[in-house]
User: Fold these one by one.
Assistant:
Number 1:
Amino acid sequence: MTEDDVNAPDDQAAGTGGGLREHDVRTELLDLLAEVGAVTATEAASRLGYSSGLCSFHLRQLARHGYIEEAPRSGGRARPWRLKEHSPVADQGTGEPFGDLARGLEDESWQRWLSQRDEAPADRRHDEAFSAVAYLTPEEMSRVADVIRRSLEPYKDREHRPLARPDGARPVALITRLFPLLPHTGDGRGRAEST
């Protein structure tokens, strides 16, 4: 058992914290750091509406994975954090922020689901995982993504408005990845087709 296991928030230590929530907390912390530069766990908790213990835990996890580092202290016990200068997050520039982190957390959550599905309540052992291949132009691919995003709009406010959730609603990971399939080459690397 590690220090982080011992200091994990109660819902994570018990194994009941979902990967979706972990993903949300870490993404919000990274967004906040990108916006303000440096924060302590207490400051992050105040700005994001989480407990300082939860923020502290996830800040340490982000540091452990190389995304953030301790910022210089200005005295006292406060422990400020900042984005690492050459972290995967900082290096992504204006592209999709935190994409690699998000994909890693999604994959981790999926693997947890597969390994612990039988422990879920009987009415929660069902999933709707599927994949498909479609031949689309870049414009069609963007339209498909927009349709999926629009179909989720009626449910967006439930994250921050618990009273809007119907009885029995629980967090569900919704992961969509639309990307061109590249041909396999003899050297094991894909190479984009020229048109």
Number 2:
Amino acid sequence: MSNNSWAYIESGKNDAAYNMALDELLMEKVRSGTIPAAIRLYEWKTPTLSIGYFQKMKKEIDIDRVNEYGYELVRRATGGRGVLHDKELTYSVVLPETYPGMPESVTESYRIISQGLLEGFRNLGLDAHFSIPRTKEEKKELTNIRSSVCFDTPSWYELVVEGRKIAGSAQTRQSGIIMQHGSILLDVDVDHLFDMFTYANERFKNKMKEAFKEKAVAINQISSKEFSVEALYPAFKKGFEKGLDIVTEPYILTKDDEVRLLEIKRKYESNEWNYRK
């Protein structure tokens, strides 16, 4: 593979630990130079609540409710807030920090990588664009973490359609490697989403829920066409190719990859990792 020819993986539906382990495996493979960079599109076998690396599980998450719904629960390697992965396509992008044209700034690299998402939404016929904070008030709002819910938290270079956030992403940098992953919402059950988190009282929870509905949106809520998740794969594959100015080649996991993947997967299955905070 040349530098602008990236590995492309459609890994389909898998459990939560597998999905997080495969992202980590791709970081190892890029770090070793086995592949120059990678784009992965995937789904979740069971609805899963993923929480950010720094979130406090027992303080912020209603663990009993998660278990009651039969959902999985996993801690990500990335920061950010909680995400309910259900009716969505999830993406991950893995590349070296030294990749040509990649800014050192986390904020600016987020903008570059998210250009692929922007093109993907446009491939679906949606008028997506970046919402960039410009005033002091808008920049101050970025520090206002209203709740534990990802799409309820403002960030730089948000992707918006019709004034509402349509994608949620998180990034980590480890030993010279950037990994950014996130959710492309097809539909969202707001009631179930907010049931996963703890709030001081029901009134505050309902207030946050209503604010979320005004701030965030899913593809099928605003598109004139009803999309299936299968339709999202080619749209975002081509979107990342155009947005990042790359070509992709399918990558199939080797037997050694599968062995290493199972080793990493054990970490994301463990209480030691998931309940570490």
Number 3:
Amino acid sequence: MLIGLSMPAIAWMLLAGVILDLVYGELPRWHPLVGFGRWATWVEQRLNRQRHLILRGLLAWIIVVLPLVGLVFLISKQDDFAWLGHIILLYFCIGLRSLRDHNLPILMALKNQDLEQARQLTSRIVSRDTANATAADLAKASTESMLENGNDAVFGTLFWFVLAGGAGALLFRLANTLDAMWGYRNARFNYFGRVAARVDDVMNWIPARLTALSYVLLAPTYLDKRCAWHCWRSQAPNWPSPNAGPVMASGAGALGLALGGTADYGGITEQRPSLGEGRAAQGEDILRAWHLVLTTTVLWLAIALAAGAVFFVYGGMDGQFYA
């Protein structure tokens, strides 16, 4: 591991961080990522001007991210209560319960046939227009968001925590947050946000494919697994994002749903590539997508705990194998 944590310690820290997130969820006030977003916006407004926008975007990324991650890394090297700091950082960075808390109310609004409430709730989690969205549109948007953000908010964070502890989880979430803020191909961010988008692509490449593989393995039936694998391999290359494509295609195939297709952005209807195979999404599929993300989390934790047990048996708590 990049910071010298043993595998047994990492496994228990992963479990503790996920449990904290499921029990307490996001902080209702003064969440660190909210403060980071305001800091990033302040820096962007002062650097995103005139010429050399790619270089200015690189400088902004460095200013916003590296001091925070470097400080956390140095603090994590201290022996006293370092383990607690890693767990708290993972809790701040992971967003498993947040996925549930933001998406399941959409399901409830659709069940109650409160279309206006469902539109308002969906507009909080996606960038597409929802003012005239149908119930099917909203179910599709929420299901797609759940599948994609399973990787962005949960599995990518767990992957980088295993590699580099709390500093790794923080680096990933900050990079992912900047991609969500700056990584747009529009007049304002096309050049300035290019570095943020590329860094997120690189950091997400392995986690996204591990997530896609997990969705395949956890599909309900053998035929669903075959469908998820086929959709991943055949449809993901057509999706604009190199990492969202595998995750969403395999997740849609695992659930037996037809996702992708038309969506409205800024008053313009875009025809996106198809994802998955089967029927159109319904409100109940939001819950099915949540269950897929949750069981994938359990799978990853089980693998980490099993690896930790093996390292403990053969190498002790320091996690090193001995001849």
Number 4:
Amino acid sequence: MFSRRLIIRAAQFSTSQSKKTEKLWENPWKHALHQQEQPRTSAKVLEVPIDWSYVERLMPIEIIPDVPKHETYPTPSGWTPPTEAAKTHSYYVRRRRDHMLPLYLERKRDLLNEKTLDFDYVELVVLRNVDGNIFDCENELRQFVEAQLDHPIATHVDELKGRIKIKGAPRKIIEQFLYSKGF
């Protein structure tokens, strides 16, 4: 009986409220559609002159310097500039920003030494920035290095990244190959 009276009074309360004014939370779409237009204000833009010279001094130089000129080649360090012969191959090896050959050394963990129970490490030479037919480059490089060393070497070609990894060859011989091809 108590719950029946409460329901009747709640129904009477809700009908009396709806007769007066409908609240915003009861029907938000009705209030959103019938809202009066409010005047719009636009922001004013003011351009302030800024002296960027202080910031520009801190920015890195994006211009790659020209190839340095020397009296004789190769220089005492063994560096030589690229020649026109490099354009005759089906592949091209781009130099780095500092005009050096893109040769890098990597040390990788190799097989487990069973006597010492420690891993042996192997040094790999990585040739990067190879464009064009990378498999021709790898084939000629392998033939050149194997002729110099008198033993086979292992190579791995990553065509998507333009890299060749060489195991079992010193960096100096790979430099000789690239200089002989004009890169």
